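User: I'm writing a tutorial on reading structure tokens. Could you give me a worked example: one chain, its sequence, then its tokens, then a sentence or two explaining what the tokens reveal?
Assistant: Sure. Here is the example chain.
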Amino acid sequence: MHDLPPMARFGGLLATDLRDVTSDPAALDSTGFWAVAADFEGGLTCARFGDVRAEPVPEPVPGAWTGPGAGDWSSSLDRADYTAGVRRIRTHIAAGDVYQANLCRVLSAPLPEPATADVDALTSLLARGNPAPYAGTIRLRAHGVEIATASPELFLRRAGRFVESGPIKGTGRTAEDLLEKDHAENVMIVDLVRNDLGRVCATGSVTVPQLCAVEAHPGLVHLVSTVRGELAAGAGWAELLAATFPPGSVTGAPKSSALRIIEALETAPRGPYCGGLGWVDADRGTGELAVGIRTFWIDRDAVGGPKLRFGTGAGITWGSDPEREWDETELKAARLLAVASGAYEASGGTVR
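And here are its predicted structure tokens:
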């Protein structure tokens, strides 16, 4: 089967007719409509499309997506390694090295039918089984980018000179599950995001109009805050990304220390997971990038053959219980893996 044509889908828009692909963030301030995929490790793919039109996500076509079996997933960190990592981060916190760090693991499963696997077909399933405000698709198979995201988290929204971020910290099945630890974690990350935006925004323009609001999502709730600012003169997408990437909510505070700890404890690259995914309309000076969580991607160069990958993680603080943090990563993954494996019954809204 020939490769499926390049496309991107975000916010009710379908982009086709690929014109350019670049890794230069300055292109996002040029002209045209761009799909953006930024890996956690720093790789950037910006794809400009010539045709952009309003089109809803199509209804799933039976048989269009063949996912891994529900029991076929393996984790880069097993339960013992993950809980040991949580304890190690608490040791770093006790030593004053860091206030919090996000510990993540990457789940992988062989693709049963890699030749015909289409992330846009997976997006259709996700739209029904796990609707999300920043859901989308980027399909650039020739460039090694095949991503379907059901992200609930805003990384960066831009309208002209104004920018906004919506960090999520704190997760539970219900609002009653949220602990004081979750609120403290959120406030710490808000402070980090304020600092990041402050590096590239006009002095005094950074504000926090919303702090620790409870937001409901399929199967769980999150604490969400909003941080806003106005870009300083001469600052564009390149400077904005340099100041804020990778997203603070999926790294930790201080960010530099958290990144060193993450590199030491995690055994697999995060790739598009915890990166930035979305679109930029350079002609209108607008854009919206999600944090690449609740995200699937196809790795066709994986050892042993093409694999579907998915990441999950949790923010670790001094108040973290290792087993509870493992359970949080399981909660975040369960519904999405069920959808991708075909074990989710959309009409009944249950996970089998």
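What the tokens reveal: DSSP finds six helices and 20 strands in the chain. The two ends are 32 Å apart (CA to CA).
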